[in-house]
Write a structure and sequence with these properties.
- Helices cover 38% and strands 17% of the residues.
- It has helices at 2-11, 22-25, 35-50, 62-70, 79-101, 115-119, 121-136, 159-169, 224-236, 251-256, 274-282, 293-302, 343-349, 357-361, and strands at residues 15-20, 54-59, 108-113, 140-145, 174-179, 200-201, 240-245, 263-265, 287-291, 311-316, 323-327, 333-338, 375-377.
- Strands 3-4-2-1-5-7-8-6 form an 8-stranded mixed beta sheet, with helices on both faces.
- Helix 8 packs parallel to helix 9.
- The radius of gyration is 22 Å and the shape is globular.
């Protein structure tokens, strides 16, 4: 049964996002990066391309290289220090990939993103078009967070999260997360020898593993919890994820030969559209709309849009086209969506009937403040 799932979701995938963590790239002998891993990855990616697949690589490693150059043993803690170390290491990281890819006659392009790039719908679509163009040229997009300019408010948090958002960005068919253990275990395999590998996760929403919150170590920021969360985001986009050991020689070949390796997370059957996935996971809401009990029930139980009559209060400043939280009378978020009116306009029309919008504003763009097609229940 496990192999049937792999054949269904892995072998048929054409566009693939591969995320490689610092723990995979780090050398076991010193604080630098392992050139053998780069070589193995390059060969695996080149073979996938030859078989007709498109590959987008999301990589960590810039800070690890910067740390090596500076002789640091501990990951810097402040944002400015991380930015400086990342700036020092980013060029060398790309050089390592190019060194491994060039003998295989493969070209790579660096794409640096911040959360603002994916949080804005226009910039999101621009990034999608750029990456699609690179793939059309046969170039491998190598994506990393733009650590040198990202501040806390616009950081992804870790590259597992970034990889999940990129999966939606490029409309990929499969997400592969390469880490330094063989997959997801029922216990921490680094601490408990009785831990068992979980070969398939059918419903990631119901998965609970207390140990998976462990941190990512000296170089990395995300533990297994962030990888499971990335798989969850991909699952809601209708995409399967496999977590496997990137230190394993020929790991990509083994995965795409559908060998029973790593942990496969199955996609959700009731998947979100690309736009709704963006609303739910990529966009950063800029304000809150308080909704009365009747409108809350209409949205949650009847699948209705949010009308001005159900709004009691507006919190924050936002423009039409931005994403806002929809919260109940207690301030608890139950949905989020793209608003058709600005916060100042909603403040004027809250609590009124749709037939009165034009009388109050002097114009009417829409009957709905948030249309159901642009609304995601949390």
């Amino acid at each position: 049964m496990t192999n049937n799932f792999r054949k269904k979701y892995i072998s048929s995938a054409k566009r693939i996002v591969i995320k490689v963590g610092s723990a995979v790239l780090a050398s076991s002998h010193d604080e630098g990066l392992d050139e053998t891993v780069f070589s193995n990855l390059a060969k695996g990616i080149s073979e996938l391309k030859k078989s007709g697949k498109e590959v987008i690589l999301v990589t960590s490693g810039a800070i690890a290289i910067g740390m090596k150059k500076m002789g640091l043993k501990q990951r810097p803690k402040s944002i400015p220090e991380k930015q400086a170390i990342a700036a020092l290491g980013q060029g060398s990281l790309m050089a390592s990939y190019e060194k491994a890819l060039t003998p295989l006659h493969e070209k790579a392009a660096q794409v640096l993103l911040t959360h603002d790039d994916l949080g804005s719908r226009q910039r999101f679509l621009n990034a999608r078009n750029t990456i699609s163009t690179l793939l059309g040229y046969g170039i491998i997009p190598i994506i990393n967070e733009n650590d040198t300019v990202a501040v806390e408010e616009i950081k992804f948090g870790d590259n597992d999260h970034l990889a999940a958002l990129v999966t939606n960005l490029v409309e990929a068919d499969l997400l592969v997360i390469l880490t330094d253990i063989d997959g997801l275990f029922d216990k921490d395999p680094k601490k408990d020898k009785t831990a068992n590998l979980i070969p398939v996760v059918r419903d990631v929403d119901r998965l609970t593993l207390a140990w998976a919150g462990d941190t990512g170590g000296v170089f990395g920021t995300g533990g297994m919890a962030s990888k499971v969360e990335a798989a969850k985001k991909a699952a809601h986009f209708g995409v399967a994820t496999i977590i496997a050991n990137g230190k394993d020689f020929d790991i990509l070949k083994k995965i795409f030969d559908c060998i029973d390796i790593g942990t496969l997370f199955l996609p959700m059957e009731d998947k979100l559209t690309s736009k709704k996935h963006w609303i739910a996971f990529s966009a950063r809401p800029t304000g809150r709309i308080f909704v009365d009990e009747g409108a809350t029930d209409a949205i949650l139980k009847k699948g209705k849009s949010l009308l001005p009559s159900g709004i009691t209060k507006v919190d924050g400043i936002f423009e039409a086209g931005e994403v806002a939280h929809c919260v109940d009378r207690h301030g608890k978020e139950f949905a989020r969506g793209v608003v058709n009116y600005s916060s100042s306009e909603i403040e004027k029309i809250k609590g009124i009937k749709t037939t009165e919008i034009e009388k109050i504003l002097g114009y009417k763009y829409y009957d709905e403040v948030v249309h159901r097609d642009n609304l995601v229940v949390r």
